[in-house]
């Protein structure tokens, strides 16, 4: 399953959408800042409807479903139009459901054993969560030792900011970074679309500078 389109921009915006009416303006605000990638988390009842609305009204946006904790959420996400899935941990039920529904999945890992199990289950693009709490850049560099040759790629998420973004992007095994800082729950609830666009544009500028190195 091809995850490449969702990693190309090297940033995934992790969003918690409380009100379904905020979904489309949020996606448009991210797009205006140059990002075409959003992970809508299944932490609110609005998640599936938000995914469907963004797919319908903002077709340039790639839309993932995040916080997939149960296998049945995978089907719900796919039915809503999710193009990729993200889980905070490594669940066999979620993994099986994703494979059954042809949903590219970023399962969550932090330990070598979890990485080995994820590889056994057929996943190579792994969310490293919660990144900052579990050793951040240093942990990822250490994990690149035994896993660098396996083709495993990480999407560190959790506690990352625009200031720490370049440190993560400099690690060859880091495919992309996930974070909510450009569109945190309060900014969305406040409908502060201009600020979300500005923070997204700032992040995209940092990414361009990191790519140029
Ligand atoms: C996630 O689920 O990936 C995290 O909530 C995102 O982490 P952050 O809010 O610290 O960026």
Plain-language structure description:
Helix content is 45%, strand content 15%. It is α/β, with parallel strands linked by helices and 213 residues long. It has a single domain (4-106, 161-212), classed as TIM Barrel, CATH 3.20.20.70. Strands 5-4-3-2-1-9 form a six-stranded parallel beta sheet. Helix 2 packs parallel to helix 10, helix 3 runs parallel beside helix 4 and helix 4 (71-80) runs parallel beside helix 5. The longest helix has 20 residues, at 193-212. The chain is globular, with a radius of gyration of 16 Å. 3-phosphoglyceric acid binds next to strand 9.
Task: Name some characteristics of this structure.
213 residues, alpha/beta, TIM Barrel, six-stranded parallel β-sheet, three-stranded parallel β-sheet, 9 strands, binds 3-phosphoglyceric acid
CATH architecture descriptor = Alpha-Beta Barrel
If strands are numbered along the chain, what order do they take across the biggest sheet? 5-4-3-2-1-9
- Secondary structure: helix percent: 40-55%
The name of the CATH topology is TIM Barrel
